[in-house]
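User: Show me a protein chain along with its predicted structure.
Assistant: Here is one chain, sequence first, then structure tokens.
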Amino acid sequence: MPNALVARNGGRWGLAALVAILLLGVGLRVGEAWDGRAPVYDAAAYAAIAKNLDQGNGFTVGADATQPSSDYSPGLPLFVAGLYKVTGGVHERLARVILALVGSLAILFTYLLARRLAAAALFRNRASGVGEGGVVVLGNPQGDQGRQPPRPVVVAALIAALVVAIYPATIEYTGMLMTEPLAATLLAGAILGLLWAGDGTTLWRWLVPGLTLGALALVRPEYLAIGFLLALLVLLRERLTFGRRRALFSAAIVLAAIIVVVAPWTIRNAIALDRFVTVSTGGGQVLYAGTYLPSDGNPEKVGAAVVAENPGLFGPHAVDNLRLEQILARLAEARHPGLEPDQALSKMGREQLKDDVLHHTGEYVEFVATKIGRIWSHGPRAVMREPLWEALHWALLGLGLLGLGLLAYLRRWEALLIGAVFLAVTIVSALLVASPRRVLVLIPLLSACAGATIAWIATRARRGTAQSVL
């Protein structure tokens, strides 16, 4: 086993480099978590909910909250509250450190994904040399003359892992209780799980990605629909590979595992909120804000624009004294008295979207394009505007999309899974609020795709050099 582990990672040098990158990523994250960082509003809310849960006050932000506690996804505060119960009190620093360690798993998952994708970019299918876990079989495609992947595959995977290890926005978010680092780990783990399950023949394997996707949905509610989409892709892939019966069982296991994780919270919501809410409320607010044309695609401009359009509802200093959710709640109450603000905003958002599409088509297309550019063009946090990190982000984006395109051209199953996630997140952002934080969760997948491009370019360059010498 030790020799196999060394071989799978390119020899002793490759394994040593991987360990060094993991230690670097862990060190940066734990250091940030230990020191802490002034929390953004959502981080403060998650911290308050976790504290109230530990103290027996229920799932609540507190009496001074500016929006319903049900607007917040439950996964992170439930996890942190569980840590508080285990450690015997509210120890936020310890919780941040543990979350930093969990978030560091994204580095390892990126490496494993990148190693597989890089190998897939060099070999069209498994019969041509890619085995389970991205291990490359050299020599005769039908034989097993060696299990050490080519150097470009390992180097590309190490580069991909290094990018995730030092990506500043992710590191900064470990200094506060935010969902993005945890969600990035769960998403990368879910994709790895789907690929691992697809490599084998045992049906129980599909439980692993299903449970992981369920946990991800509790952390980031938009991934509930994406999890169902991935289950559909499993159905299609298994149907083509093994037949209808096995395909139905595989997809059903993924779906059942997601539901098993999410259902208890949905039942809790039905009791506590007296209506059907799968994970969290707040969808109406983000739909209305995300279809509000005067904001020019920037959610930070929505509040001021709404106040300007409705001077009779707000005082002259409303923008300074009220948060966006308070402004929209007041607007919803005025438009639809008697309805819950989220339900009213959902109705208003659908009407607004219909009006945008039918009567402001050109402006809405430009609006959507601006929103898509907003989420993909730079990472969240001010640090990502610095030239070095902005250049890293653009290089990662370019190489990642090229890698995804290359894998799609080769008709790889990996490209279908990752491409579906990228497309779904883009559509969600185009329809709802466009925040770069959505793409931050995708950085491990994007970096792994970039690794495929790097391996492909390196291999082509080596072949060209060898031919020129000959």
